[in-house]
Records
---
Amino acid sequence: MVIRLAAELRFAASDVGRIAVSSALITEMGCLLFFNVMVNWKRENHISTGIGCTVVTALVIVINRYLAVWLNARHRNQKYLKAPELLFILFLLVTSSMIIEIWGYNSVISCFIIGLLFPKEGKTARTLLHKLGYSIYNFVLPVYFGYLGLQCDIITVFKSLSQTTNTAILILLSIGGKLGGTLIVCRYLQIPTSEGIFLGFILNTRGYADLLFIGAAAKQVITFNTEAYNVLLVSIVFNTIISGIIVAFLARGEEKMFANNHTAIEPQQLEDELRILACVYDPRQVSAILSTILAIHGSRQAPSTIYLMHLIELVKKIKSNLLYHEKENTDLSDDEDYGGNDVVEINNALDAFTADTKILVHQRRAVSSFSSLYEDVCNEAEDLQVSIILLPFHKHQRIDGKLESGKEGIRITNQKVLRHAPCSVGVIVERGLSKVPGFAQLVGSEAIQNVATLFFGGPDDREAIAWSLRMSTSPRINLTIIRFLLSSSSQNEHIESGQSEEKEILMSLSGEETVNEIDNTFMVDFYNRYVTSGQIGYVEKFVKDGAQTVESLKEIGDMYSLFIVGKGGRGNSSLTIGMSDWEECPELGTVGDVLASSDFDIHGSVLVIQQHRDAKKGLMHD
């Protein structure tokens, strides 16, 4: 109940939502365990049967682990398992549950542990989630709750004043007890009172253990008279209704409580969790996306959550005069067939990636027309509270090294996402020499990748460095920061780094623009913390104008497998003057467009970063 309510009110990904879901699961399982012990304590051989239930559960877990691996390897050209394979897995689960129920224990905890330890990667898990989710929520649970309600005589409760009073007192004690206990724990953990009140009410909505207790009474496992049974069931129902209404009211009134506080990477610490929503349109873009994901995981000391969203164009189906049995197999389709073989290829690539790197990627899918596809991306990013969205470039590289344009709808979608995204955005341009291992082959290659981050100044470039800093923790990434400065200012300003060796960083100063104190402070701090220790390389290049900047970029074009640069936010910088005269793709920014141009010969891919404009109000400007 808590999980579904959190999903519907769109706060499941927030810190409060995650605490609520975790607390509800632990509390629910604890209550069920206590219920099992209480019911079976006076029975004979209750210890031996309890051990037997544990052995059965462990046996099913072991079988499922090997079975899932075997089923994932079969029929790689299929999206889901076949019906007999799915039924065999469910047969194991139902059989173990029946054995445990026959021995007198409740099988809910056993099924929960089996599901908790079931392999999450591969098409076996995808099939179970896809096939069971709808039927459980929309058929099984409603029938079960309806069965319990059918045994309750609610009219009898309100006919008697004493029963009505007992019900009201029970509801107040239930809400007050849970709310008070939650507030005490929140005060001990230094959680704000407003969040504690919200947690207290949302934990009141969980009632499966209570209903199970009532169901056991109906089966005469626990002896209750009819009056007590009716009062308890009515109090549970009203308790859930009252708490649900209050939770919905608080969720809409306390928007700041569920707001995403990490809409950009720069303000975060390396120890903070990084949530990424990567998007792909077709299998050709998966390798670059997965390589970027692998690189950002680094040494895996910092937690990260990865979501991959398959964006599928919704096309109008052409009406056919053929009858159903006259159609070919390729003509038979439903909503699940959108994406065609692309879905299978993407699933196989993700399965191989997870098996090789042990990095779990949560899959999402959006099917819509290109005109509204960006809304699905932005809404999903907001619901998941991610810090950055990764998008593939609409052009792909041919064998001769030239970039060929794909669907124009992809470009329009990328532009709209950049304009409306609730967080930072990165656009990946896959480039490189054919048959030469590049950054896109990071997953399948053990070679060290040389990565360069170009810094001209501005919020987007700072965001690019913050992203690069997380990549630098990977043992297979050799990162170099290349800062471009005006050559006329090379002798004008020196800023001490604060080290004992009195190393200095040259800062730019020109007659056209004042020193950007934010960039200077940021770079001095970055230099002192990471460059002086030898963790990251640092190079300064002095140029006079945009023409010299382009020449400098050409000189380093074959030295790195990945170039990371901010989209813009530099104002009228002298470093890039004239570079936008032949701009082809404004969504990449001035420098990103040059690096992604077919006329510009480089051997590395390009990642263009745009910082979320509301991440630091007052500092975001183009």
---
Amino acid sequence: MKYILVSGGVVSGIGKGVIASSTGLLLKTTGLKVTSIKIDPYMNIDAGTMRPQEHGEVYVLNDGGEVDLDLGNYERYLDVTLSRDHNITTGKIYKEVIEKERRGDYLGKTVQIVPHVTTGIQDWIERVAKLPVDDTNEEPDICIIELGGTVGDIESAPFVEAMRQFQFRVGHGNFALIHVSLVPDMHGEQKTKPTQATVRDLRGLGLMPDLVTCRVLVRKPLSIETKRKISMFCHVAEEQVIGIHDVSSVYHVPLLLQEQGIISFLQRKLDLKSIYLSKKLMDRGSRLMVRWKEMTDVIGKNHYLDVVSIVLVGKYTDMPDSYMSVVKALEHSAARCQRKLNLQWVAAEHLEPTHKIENPVQYYDGWKNVVAAQGILIPGGFGQRGTEGMLLAIKRAREYKVPFLGICLGFQMAVIEWARNVSGLDGATSTEFNAETPHPVIIYMPEVSKTHMGGTMRLGLRPTVFSSDSESWSKARRMYGGKEKIWERHRHRYEVNPEYIERLVAAGDLEFVGKDEKGERMQVLELRDHPYFVGFQAHPEFCTRPLNPSPAFLGFVSASASATVLEGQMKNQVLHFVPPHPPGAMVSEAELKDLGKNTLANGTEVIVGSPK
């Protein structure tokens, strides 16, 4: 097993995740099997209880793990299926070490950061790195480890020390370090002092970078003179200094890395050519590179493409990373449709009548974007704030035949809008917003804990069964290749009240075309007489891939472009759609729940606990 550590310095949030994912993609194009691990030094057990504005999107995995959004980057770029154990946090490590101490596993020793915590980190990495994550169901060849935060942070110190020890544990020939640093551009002059300082700090902690990747936050590439200066003062050769400047799309980053010889360097450093590669895997890698370049060619020519205008009406629009996967799903779909995506962000509360008085500029700007949009999207969220604005946007989409996609909360809001304005259920709402509502069309799921927040929702991959009559008319079903059963990832505490299903359906064109295996839980809704009005209780954005867009989003973007584009994409999906999930994961809900109690990697059950 080979290991590549990606660390960062100067500031956080400069693209370590994209660089790690891009490096993994390039390695995969050579035929290698690649996996990824993300280290987050915060004390939380996982990201599940964090506010989206605090840490961005909470990404959900097949096994129900609520993890950092960077794992979404890994899954999308590498087309792999990761588990909750691929996200390491300080909370997880400390919890495991303390549990071992309580069991007496340390045989009376004084438990310390070094060696017990640092050894626990290394054991965890070695164990998880071996889990199969792709359709080969084989142990990966390379594990890319991203260390979150910046070198020098107090909270990341145990992980840095663990990595210092780890390089000796696995051997220098099996370990490479990519350090990502910021090179500020000051009025056209690129400054190297921050990079010199962070590399000096890193070396002082016992780690020597093999590659120094310099982020330049402008369109100007890293200059030759800057490379030479960093090479001289950071004790690396010029070929070991990689420049990543701003590009039109993050999907161009792998090509930028490739141009600078990163793969040839890693092949020499890690002796990657000694790893046996079957012709099948090498051919697959070659095809992956061809398809990736074709996709980036389409994105690169978007100035010449027709525009598709989408409005996202959400609760957390002040922090775009809150909807990271939603945006990626839209981008992937637009590229497939050969359209330039014009995404407008509207805070849902800005559409409410009360906001017209409080801030008329925001009110009219918000409605201007909604009225001008070719498609209206309501993503997930929690809480009552902004929901009345969402209802107004959904009503417009329904009445004016504007393509609509509702995700999780958006799905529930579509049910509430229909209940109020078509079924005539005055005051209908969710018990999340009003426990005393006369018409609770959305209710708390009976099996969900009301006392604990973390990891207690309906989480992870779950099957949806389409109704038998939907085959003849459902656009959503055709986008999934016409299949009777599909699998998507869920994250919710509330559901449609089964007592209201008959009254909702009897009112008109609304159909719940997708349900759980028992037929009790409503999971997909669709309007018959509408260009595209679809809601998912699940989060289909979590399973989108650049070369295999989410069918729900692809249908939405296609319909927003035109009825002709939608028809073409539906025909293509019926012929060519392949689910992004490994075969071992596409099983019944009962089996998925059992697997979710352990680490689920590519449908393979493994024991979560570290070896004793």
---
Amino acid sequence: MSSSTAKTPSRPRHARPGITPSAITLGLNSLSLSPTKSVYNNAPDSSNPFIDRRAANSSNPFVDKKSSPTKARGRSRHGSMSSGGLDHLAKDAVRGIVRPGGIETKFDVVRNDYFVGESKGSTSPRKRKGSSVSLNSSGGYSGNKLKSSASSDDRMIPTSNIGATLASQNIQNTSPAHTARLAENLGINVNQRILRFHQQGPQPTTDPTLALQRQLARPLYQRPAGPNASTGAVTNKTRVIPTSPQRVLDAPGMIDDFYLNLISWSGLNQLAVALCESTYIWNAETGNVDLLGTAPEGSYVSAVNFTPDGTFLGVGNGNGDVEVWDMETTQKLRTMSGHQAQVASLSWNNHILASGCADGSIWFHDVRVAQHKVMQLLGHEGEICGLTWRADGELLASGGNDNVVNIWDGRTGSSGDDWRGTPLYTKNNHTAAVKAMAWCPWQNNLLATGGGTGDGQVHFWSSTTGARVNTLQTPTQISSVQFAPHSREVLTTHGAPVNSLMIHSYPSMSKVAEINDAHDARVLGSAVGPAGDVVCTYAGDENVKFWKIWELPKKKKDKAGSSETGPGSMLLIR
């Protein structure tokens, strides 16, 4: 460092932060300087304390013509501050005085306030706000203009937190070349709106082996099935399921009640349909319709169910009576009374007819004896709306409005009035009424149950262990569930808002087909034809529809070269 007085203070060669007005102020404040009344409070047009003396006039209050640069600095050769210079520097710092030759003269200065949106020729005075560093058009710091900011800490000295200032600014003046390169590399059209996608998605692959690869890999992602379940079910994707019914029957007077079971299809290819107080029989082979009988005055038909061979029909009424009809003679054989409320579900097991009542009781009626009530099961607190025997007659499944599924041993029970039977298994997984129930024809220990509104799930149970082996989630209430007799598939019918039929493969639970809006109202139930290829559905729109869902298996030809066709084939429906 030279001993002669220099215009600017000498600085060491090693790198350290430069001296800024904010640093000077911070150092002076740390010395507890006593502020004096500032002169510049009377100068409303001043916007920057760093005034170049060479451009100043005599009327500028920020230029001290009497003080010399040497005395103003008041710094010794070793950088220590003298007491006289310290007092003078404190007084100058408060007043915001800039002397010629000082370090302050190296900064760009502002001689006039600049306001955004104000024309250059405007001379109207405006109230000055706090200043902050702004950006010029080239992206650098503006040396002759300061944008007004109400968040500045010091009116005379710009803030030193440049990073925070830049982050608060809306920087739009980026380099056009950089923008073009960025848009080209990212594939963005700068003229389009951000987050708006107009380009088409990629085209699907044309690899012919991809479908086969997915089919072979599907068993790896399937849920584990029951002990006796087969995991080799493969859906034929080339099968076409019609989305329109084969035939539609008008059913005026059909009661729109979810808990009732109003149709049944017999092995003789006859369909029983309950319309309010009347029961009709429609012959699928001839198309004839006959009135079988009517309910007692003031009552209605609430359930119908055929025996497996189709020779007898059980009819449940709203007053609690259960009737037995001979289909060969179309005569009523007997009426069995005793229930105190409507009978909404029936199921046959040889000569035993099980009836489910609205009071939650299940009765076994032996139609051969006068005292028909031979067994009573009390395991539900709500109306029995689902009831079905297994094919071998050993187990009975029941579902109620109490969201409970019970599996009963058919040999338990008593004719006593105070007997409360104990079910073999009780399941409380459903969250709505359980009406949809079906035993699997190709796996006799598999039971499917479906929940109503608010549940929409089909649970598959093993009657051997009582465990749940699979679950199918559907979008809405399930009114019936049916197993395909000749393939490993499950059909479900649904209520509002979809009113659809869904077919899923088992046990993968992959959707095979869906027929939306099958009816104009919620689908209330279904029945499978004796041949196993056609499904009949009924709904609150007073229509009965027939759907060709499955294909019949190809039968082997005998020695004479002819093939057998059962009397129940739906090919006879015309």
